[in-house]
Design a protein that fits this description.
There is one protein chain. By secondary structure, the protein is α+β, with helices and mostly antiparallel strands. It has three domains: 20-229, no CATH class; 246-317; 325-442, Heat Shock Protein 90 (2-Layer Sandwich). It contains 15 helices and seven strands. The chain has helices at residues 7-15, 25-28, 33-37, 41-67, 75-100, 121-130, 132-146, 148-171, 191-227, 231-284, 291-317, 320-325, 327-337, 354-375, 411-420; strands at residues 180-182, 186-188, 342-346, 380-387, 390-397, 424-428, 435-442. The strands form two sheets. The protein has a five-stranded mixed β-sheet, covered by helices on one side. A two-stranded antiparallel sheet has the order 1-2. The protein is elongated. The termini are far apart. Mean pLDDT is 77; it is low at 1-17.
Length: 449
């Protein structure tokens, strides 16, 4: 016996996915009347307009407090003081408005300002004066005291009037409100008049909810227009973050080179001298059949092992061959030391910048390490060409394939390293092989002028 789905299940299956919840009051206006008026968006819009009036009151109080001391100045001087006050209040008011916007817009508005490169008040002031965002915030501070209060107080007054229409007939027996006059001439005196007034208020309440939400949506759009980061500012910030990341990578790479140089010229040379000294002592004791000769020979072999480990460590930090001869020679050295035969074909007419060379070298090294550990390949290959303004490296093998970035084989870390200089990684690894890892790197970084 085959069971049939119930009518409720069929209905839910045919209903399709539920509609996405609105992210702001503008999207909420597209909902049906029942959904909008039973949601929290009209209340959030009313709260947004009401606290907007509070912000206007605080700004006006601060401005008037500053003008008390300059009322004896000439008119032009007072105008200059007003401009300075608006400029001084623009940034904190804008920050408060961006925060307050979350009442009617769940999408966070970022800070359009960038951090100064140099410390100190002077650098900060010069940067802020030159930013377009500062002058947009100044314009908003002017609008906040001249135009926006009409929207804020108008919306609050509208809802307040409707609430009074509904509540006043019920409060009159308990509170002496005086004669109730509606629309300028309608005197509310009989119970029928009170019922009619309440019905009028209830009819106007949905319209007031729509209108308040629309006013809040318009005000929020105006805030985003002036106080949100522009696309050009976002692009500039991304570019600055990219340059900053490259500078950090360059500083890290310079430190790696310094450590490699210190180990190569310091500890390694001292170990070589120690091995030579032990070799001389061992040669002098070659005729002896004593424990001293055995211990010296053992100490020499241990020192040679430490030297080999140190050279491998130096090569892992930053190989000297990469600094001296570039990527093709350094990759050829990796291939020579690989237990899997590797064919190298890298043709570069000129040297890359240091940061890109380092990323290219370690990308190939990590890829070949994965070939040895995970692929089960018999052969591998590395190719490299310049294509336009990019270096394209390909590391392939004839192994089992099936590699994925989330397998924990270092591919995600490799992708992060490549992304530092603005490169990208592409992995082609069908089950059964072959596997190809394509690394694309910029020929020049933004800071390599």
């Amino acid at each position: 016996m085959i069971s049939q789905p119930s009518a409720d299940r069929r209905a839910s299956a045919n209903a399709g996915p539920p509609a996405a919840a609105p992210l702001n009051c503008r999207q909420a206006l597209t909902l049906g009347p029942r959904l909008l008026l039973t949601s929290g968006w009209p209340w959030r819009s009313l709260g947004y307009l009401a606290c907007g009036g509070a912000v206007v009151f605080l700004v006006m109080a601060a401005a008037m407090n500053g003008l008390i001391y300059v009322d004896t100045l000439p008119d032009y001087a007072q105008l200059m003081v007003v401009v300075v006050l608006a400029a001084a209040l623009g940034m904190p008011v804008a920050a408060a408005e961006r925060l307050r916007l979350r009442l009617v817009d769940t999408e966070c508005v970022g800070n359009p300002h960038v951090a100064p490169d140099a410390p100190g008040l002077k650098a900060w002031l010069w940067l802020r004066i030159g930013e377009a965002a500062t002058w947009r915030e100044f314009s908003y501070a002017i609008a906040l005291t001249a135009v926006l209060p009409l929207i804020d107080f108008g919306g609050v007054l509208l809802v307040g009037s409707v609430v009074i229409l509904i509540a006043a007939p019920f409060l009159e027996p308990f509170v002496d409100l005086g004669p109730l006059i509606v629309f300028g001439y309608w005197h509310i005196s009989t119970p029928l008049d009170r019922v009619v007034v309440v019905l009028v208020g209830l009819v106007l309440l949905p319209a007031a909810g729509y209108l308040v939400t629309a006013l809040a949506a318009g005000r929020a759009a105006f805030v985003r227009l002036l106080l949100a980061p522009r696309e050009s500012e976002v692009v500039a910030r991304v570019q600055e973050l990219t340059r900053s990341r490259i500078r950090l990578a360059d500083a890290f790479e310079a430190e790696r080179k310094r450590i490699e140089r210190d180990l190569h010229d310091g500890a390694q040379q001292r170990l070589v001298g120690l091995i030579m000294t032990l070799g001389i002592v061992e040669h002098g004791l070659v005729e002896e059949r004593s424990d001293r000769a055995v211990l010296v020979a053992k100490a020499r072999r241990e020192a040679e092992g430490v030297l080999a480990d140190l050279r491998e460590l130096i090569r892992g930090i930053h190989p000297q061959l990469l600094t001296d001869r570039g990527v093709p020679a350094a990759v050829a050295e990796i291939a020579d030391r690989s237990p899997v035969p590797v064919h190298v074909d890298i043709t570069l007419a000129e040297r890359l910048v240091s940061a890109v060379e380092t990323v290219a070298y370690f990308a190939v090294k990590e890829a070949l390490t994965n070939v040895v550990k995970h692929s089960g390949a018999r052969t591998a290959w590395v190719t490299g060409r310049r294509e336009g303004d990019r270096l394209v490296l390909c590391v392939g093998d004839d192994g089992v394939g099936g590699a994925r970035p989330e397998d924990g084989r270092g591919l995600q870390g490799l992708a992060d390293r490549v992304a530092v200089v603005g490169g990208r990684l592409k992995l082609l690894s069908p089950s059964g092989g072959p596997t190809e890892l394509v690394v694309e790197l910029p020929w020049r970084t933004p800071d390599s002028a």
